[in-house]
């Protein structure tokens, strides 16, 4: 490249200086930035420019001064502001700068929402980093201005008022300025809670009117009532609604909510309604015996604070009581009256519903016309009466003077008898009626006198020497009594005696006779019964044929005689004739014995006795036995079985003694010796011997025994045997060779050496307390006082096995096997279990172990089980029984029936044996809902099923030991749900209503029903959700509801809507006119409900309208204008509608009096001529002239004048004209005074 050098000639110029102190000021309201600076040297003008960081776009302003405004800056940006000075040629540098942050941008609202419950609004916006904060402002049409602020992107407006529409905008806050408001939006808060909720409850109808104050922000209202088992609701756009399905006896919690399209009121207004108490149930009455009181009881009615009980008798009697309890006593009921008992509960505010009348018959009346009679022979009193109404059982009471009573009871008969009356007593007899355990008042007492008493305290005295008998008795308290004494000789005839005394003597009797005596008493009415029997004897006859015999070996004397007549006991007296000796013996037989001294003479006598008399005596003489050697003693040699006998020596007889052993079996053994001892051999074993010693010179008859006795050696038992009764473990041991006078000891020893024994004097012995299941060794041994025999051969005995214990049974519910176990029994080798079923089935099983299993027991039976142990020879007693139940039998025939009105499933089945209780389960197919019911029998009801659903119903049982599972099921379709949102459209002029509703779950079709308070019933059916019901009657209050219908049920009703049809047209309108006063009374009849008021209109023939308003069916109109005809109609009004006008009735008011009446006297004739104007056709005018004395004269005319003649001259008369039409007499004209006797007219 080529370079060249060029030289230019220029004049140097200096650029303006940079402006100093550059400042910027942001104007918040307009967003304009005012830039200012100090003037710089050399500058002729300035340019201020603002440029965003990183952007090429900028805005500027130019000026020759030291400030200018920058406009069109974007919000929320940071600008670099540069001021450049210029002089037309050069500019200053760009170093004169400052920065400015513009006004924040308005926030961009991102979202907003309202929390209806708290009336708080949540507001959010797009994030803006240029803002240091945000302010949310809200204002309502009513002037409320809440706000909130935030440094992030959301904010909560928490003090909004209910029922307001707020206009809301947001403002971003900068360091210096706030932004413009954002686009505004609206927030509509939840409607306000209704205030001052009130209820008006009609006790008699259970209809409640709810009302409340108007509230802000609502579209409509909904009221809910709830009381445990029942709820209802009503919706309305008004500030009141009716609740028509309230149930009696409930305390309802009432809530009212205001509704709007977006929210409901945040809180519910609340109150309570206590409905009238329900009619008491389970009314019963029972008779309380005291005061003929009826005790009335019932179940409590919910909500009741008290009860009024009324009993109305058919005879007009009324009894009442008031109580706060569930029972009440009504005393003093009229006997045998039938009462109707009703109970009416009441609360603090309401009279409740009356119970169904309970019929009760009061306590019985006493019988009437009570009469008594007496049967003397039996002393039985009879009472009779006329029966009381409705009663069949009677108790008659006879009470004596001491208060002792006799009663007789009869069923169905009007009489009974008193037996066992106390003789001689006077009784007061009354009768009561007995019914339902209560007695009536007693009948008035009547008297019954019992039969005279028989004589008492019979006593007799025998004159032993003469055999005369004297009989005495007590005096009867009555006077004029005769006594009859009856005598019966044993083996002889009867004899009777009479006397008025209290004693009698019978003489001429023989010894040894026995008599029975009885006495009766007789008064003027009755003869008493016989007294008690008294036995008497005459003195006994003396005994005969006395004999006496002496016994050598015992030194005894026996006296014998023949029985004597009348003798009861005999006493023998023996007296020594040569020595001092006396002995007695007594017997009721023909002999007795005494101990005598040997070798002496005696006399003996015998006397017969009756206890009161003794016979005479006879005497005999005899000698006692000769004396034998004394001090006899004997010793037994047990092994040799011999007696060594010794005695004392008898003088003169030393070489001739004989010792005798006389056996208890009659045997005699002896030994002879000249000494004082010898041995008797060959004794029989086990015998008791009497030992006596005799000498050769003693003359005795056969010696049969002595007072000295000794036993021989015992016999050895032979051929022992043992037998066992297994059921009782009683063992009997027998043997042979049993000595008749010895004792046998039987021993049974077990393997442990424990010994049991029994003793016997015979040939057998019984063990009753041997232990079960043991082996015993049994032996028998004979015993006497001093010796023992050798043992018998031994025997083995095995007792019956012990009874098994702790028996238990277990049922395997799956396999149906019943296992039985027990504890082992001593002595057992095997076991048998017996099972006896309650249905008659029996089974057994055997085992060598301590358990056994039954495989084939019948289901559903209670089995009683026992176990028996056995060995080779015995079976034990049965163990204590146990009872076990096999698994229950299956139920069959499962069925389910739906009660549509209650949505209750009635479940039934055929029970299986052995099931104690069943549980039915209903499970929803399409919903998670289960309900159950239980029953011990064949059915139960499942209630509270949800409407419009399908349920699977199954039944399972529970036995005593095992369950019975459900094995089948049936389907129940519940009734359709009630339709909701019921709406009824009706008008006053139509008899049709249009009913609509929201579809309900489970419904195939629908029926809408209107029922009037008089029972008029109308309906329409449809498969849609609306239909029209036509033919509604006037003047009725209709309850309108809808119900869903499926193939088998009509479902529950919807809420009820009340429709009041227009009032009926008043009928039979009657007019009663009082012509003279002009008062018209209008009456009419009204059908249907009673309207609020009536409006009667009277329109005259001249168009004049008169009205009369009243709330009764009578209206009175006064001051009917005379001479006019009126048309009368009546219309009925209620709050909303009015009826049509009744057919018009015509009524004509009284005729008007004529005008311009003139009366002129003709003095010559004394005729008064009366004339008037405007005479009306068909009217009758009566002219009357009346003088002060009361006389009057009249003339009748239909024209305009009339002459009165025959008037007295010189008399003043008051003249009037009276119009009348068809019996309706109008008002008189003002009187005109005329005086006869001169010709002038008085006006």
From TrEMBL:
InterPro entries hit by this protein: FN3_dom, FN3_sf, Ig-like_fold
CDD domains per UniProt: FN3 (cd00063)
Gene3D superfamilies: Immunoglobulins
Domain Fibronectin type-III positions: 18-105, 279-365, 454-541, 890-977, 978-1064, 1065-1155
SMART domains: FN3 (SM00060)
Superkingdom, natural source: Eukaryota
Listed PANTHER family: FIBRONECTIN TYPE III DOMAIN-CONTAINING PROTEIN 7 (PTHR47135), FIBRONECTIN TYPE-III DOMAIN-CONTAINING PROTEIN (PTHR47135:SF3)
Protein name: Fibronectin type-III domain-containing protein
Annotated organism of origin: Oncorhynchus mykiss
């Amino acid at each position: 490249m080529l370079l060249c050098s060029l030289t230019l000639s220029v004049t140097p110029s200096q650029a303006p200086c940079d402006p100093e102190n550059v400042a910027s000021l942001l104007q918040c309201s307009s967003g304009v930035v005012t830039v200012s600076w100090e003037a710089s040297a050399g500058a002729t003008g300035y340019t201020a420019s603002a440029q965003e960081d990183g952007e090429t776009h900028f805005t500027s302003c130019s000026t020759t001064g030291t400030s200018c405004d920058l406009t069109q800056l974007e919000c929320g940006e940071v600008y670099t502001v540069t001021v450049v000075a210029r002089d037309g040629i050069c500019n200053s540098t760009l170093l004169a700068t400052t920065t400015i942050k513009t006004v924040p941008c308005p926030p961009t609202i991102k979202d907003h929402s309202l929390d209806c419950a708290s009336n708080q609004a949540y507001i959010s916006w797009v994030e803006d980093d240029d803002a240091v904060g945000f302010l949310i402002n809200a204002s309502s049409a009513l002037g409320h201005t809440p706000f909130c602020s935030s440094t992030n992107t959301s904010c909560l407006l928490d003090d909004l008022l209910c029922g307001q529409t707020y206009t809301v905008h947001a403002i971003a806050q900068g360091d210096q300025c706030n932004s413009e408001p954002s686009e505004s939006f609206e927030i509509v808060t939840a409607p306000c809670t209704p205030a001052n909720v009130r209820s008006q409850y009609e006790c008699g109808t259970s209809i409640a009117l709810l009302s409340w104050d108007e509230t802000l922000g609502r579209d409509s209202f909904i009221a809910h009532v709830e009381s445990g088992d029942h709820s209802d609701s009503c919706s309305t756009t008004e500030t009141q609604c009716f609740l028509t399905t309230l149930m009696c006896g409930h305390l309802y919690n009432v809530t009212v909510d205001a509704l709007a399209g977006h929210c409901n009121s945040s809180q519910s207004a609340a109150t309570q309604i206590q409905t009238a108490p329900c009619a008491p149930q389970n009314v019963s009455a029972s008779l309380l015996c005291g005061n003929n009181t009826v005790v009335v009881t019932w179940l409590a009615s919910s909500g009741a604070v008290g009860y009024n009980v009324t009993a109305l008798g058919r005879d007009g009697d009324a009894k009442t009581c008031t109580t706060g309890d569930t029972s009440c006593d009504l005393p003093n009921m009229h006997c045998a009256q039938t009462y109707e008992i009703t109970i009416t509960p009441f609360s603090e505010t309401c009279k409740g519903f009356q119970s169904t009348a309970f019929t009760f018959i009061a306590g019985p009346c006493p019988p009437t016309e009570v009469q008594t009679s007496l049967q003397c022979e039996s002393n039985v009193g009879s009472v009779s009466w006329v029966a009381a109404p409705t009663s069949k059982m009677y108790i008659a009471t006879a009470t004596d003077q001491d208060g002792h009573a006799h009663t007789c009871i009869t069923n169905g008969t009007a009489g009974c008898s008193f037996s066992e009356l106390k003789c001689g007593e006077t009784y007061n007899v009354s009768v009561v009626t007995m019914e339902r355990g209560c007695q009536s008042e007693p009948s008035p007492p009547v008297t019954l006198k019992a039969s005279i008493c028989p004589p008492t305290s019979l006593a007799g005295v025998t004159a032993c020497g003469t055999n005369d008998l004297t009989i005495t008795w007590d005096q009867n308290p009555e006077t004029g009594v005769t006594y009859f004494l009856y005598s019966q000789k044993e083996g002889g005839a009867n004899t009777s005696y009479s006397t008025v005394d209290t004693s009698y003597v019978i003489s001429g009797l023989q010894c040894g006779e026995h008599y029975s005596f009885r006495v009766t008493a007789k008064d003027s009415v009755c003869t008493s019964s016989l007294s008690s029997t008294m036995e008497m004897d005459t003195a006994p006859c003396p005994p005969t044929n006395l004999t006496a015999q002496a016994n050598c070996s015992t030194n005894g004397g026996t006296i014998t005689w023949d029985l004597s007549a009348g003798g009861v006991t005999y006493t023998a007296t023996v007296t020594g004739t040569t020595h001092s000796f006396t002995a007695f013996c007594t017997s009721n037989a023909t002999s007795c014995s005494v101990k005598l001294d040997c070798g002496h003479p005696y006399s003996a006598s015998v006397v017969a006795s009756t206890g009161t008399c003794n016979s005479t005596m006879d005497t005999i003489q005899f000698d006692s036995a000769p004396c034998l050697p004394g001090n006899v003693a004997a010793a037994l040699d047990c092994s040799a079985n011999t007696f060594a006998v010794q005695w004392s020596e008898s003088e003169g007889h030393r070489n001739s003694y004989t010792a005798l052993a006389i056996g208890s079996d009659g045997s005699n053994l002896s030994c002879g010796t000249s000494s004082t001892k010898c041995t008797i051999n060959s004794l029989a074993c086990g015998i008791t011997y009497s030992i006596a010693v005799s000498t050769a010179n003693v003359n005795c008859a056969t010696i049969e025994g002595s007072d000295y006795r000794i036993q021989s050696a015992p016999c050895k038992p032979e051929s022992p045997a043992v037998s066992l009764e297994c059921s009782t473990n009683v063992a009997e041991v027998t043997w042979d060779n049993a000595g008749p006078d010895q004792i046998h000891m039987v021993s049974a020893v077990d393997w442990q050496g424990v010994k049991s024994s029994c003793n016997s004097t015979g040939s057998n012995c019984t063990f009753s307390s041997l232990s079960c299941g043991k082996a015993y060794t049994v032996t028998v041994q004979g015993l006497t006082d001093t010796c023992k025999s050798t043992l018998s051969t031994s025997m083995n005995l095995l007792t019956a096995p012990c009874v098994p214990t702790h028996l238990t049974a277990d049922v395997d519910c799956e396999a149906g096997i019943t296992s039985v176990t027990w504890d082992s029994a001593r002595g057992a080798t095997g076991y048998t279990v017996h099972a006896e079923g309650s249905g008659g089935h029996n089974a057994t099983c055997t085992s060598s172990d301590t358990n056994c299993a039954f495989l084939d027991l019948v289901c559903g039976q209670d089995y009683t089980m026992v176990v028996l142990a056995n060995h080779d020879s015995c079976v034990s007693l049965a163990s204590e029984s146990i009872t076990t139940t096999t698994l229950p039998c299956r139920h069959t025939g499962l069925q389910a029936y739906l009660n549509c009105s209650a949505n209750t499933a009635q479940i039934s089945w055929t029970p299986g044996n052995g099931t104690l209780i069943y549980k039915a389960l209903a499970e929803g197919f399409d919903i998670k809902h289960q309900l159950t019911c239980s029953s011990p029998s064949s059915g139960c009801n499942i209630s509270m099923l949800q409407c419009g659903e399908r349920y699977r119903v199954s039944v399972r049982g529970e036995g005593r030991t095992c369950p019975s599972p459900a094995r089948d099921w049936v389907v129940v379709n519940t009734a359709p749900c009630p339709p909701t949102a019921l709406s009824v459209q009706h008008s006053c002029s139509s008899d049709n209503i249009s009913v609509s509703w929201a579809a309900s779950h489970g419904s195939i079709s629908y029926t809408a029903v209107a029922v009037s308070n008089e029972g008029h019933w109308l309906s329409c059916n449809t498969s849609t959700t609306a239909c029209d019901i036509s033919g509604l009657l006037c003047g009725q209050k209709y309850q309108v509801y809808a119900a869903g219908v499926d193939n088998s049920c009509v479902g529950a009703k919807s809420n009820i809507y009340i429709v009041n049809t227009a009032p009926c047209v008043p009928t039979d309108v009657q007019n009663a006119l009082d012509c003279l006063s002009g008062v018209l009374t209008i009456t009419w009849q009204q059908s249907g409900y009673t309207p609020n008021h009536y409006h009667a209109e009277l329109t005259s023939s001249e168009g004049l309208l008169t009205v009369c308003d009243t709330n009764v069916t009578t209206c009175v109109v006064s001051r009917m204008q005379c001479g006019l005809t009126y048309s009368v109609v009546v219309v009925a009004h209620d709050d909303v509608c009015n009826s049509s006008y009744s057919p018009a009735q015509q009524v004509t008011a009284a005729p008007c009096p004529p005008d311009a009446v003139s009366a002129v006297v003709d003095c010559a004739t004394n005729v008064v001529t009366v004339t008037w104007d405007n005479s009306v056709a068909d009217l009758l005018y009566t002219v009357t002239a009346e003088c002060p004395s009361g006389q009057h004269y009249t003339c009748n005319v239909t024209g305009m004048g009339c002459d009165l003649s025959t008037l007295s001259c010189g008399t003043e008369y008051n003249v009037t004209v009276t119009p009348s039409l068809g019996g309706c007499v109008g008002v008189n004209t003002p009187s005109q005074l005329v005086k006869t006797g001169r010709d002038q007219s008085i006006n």
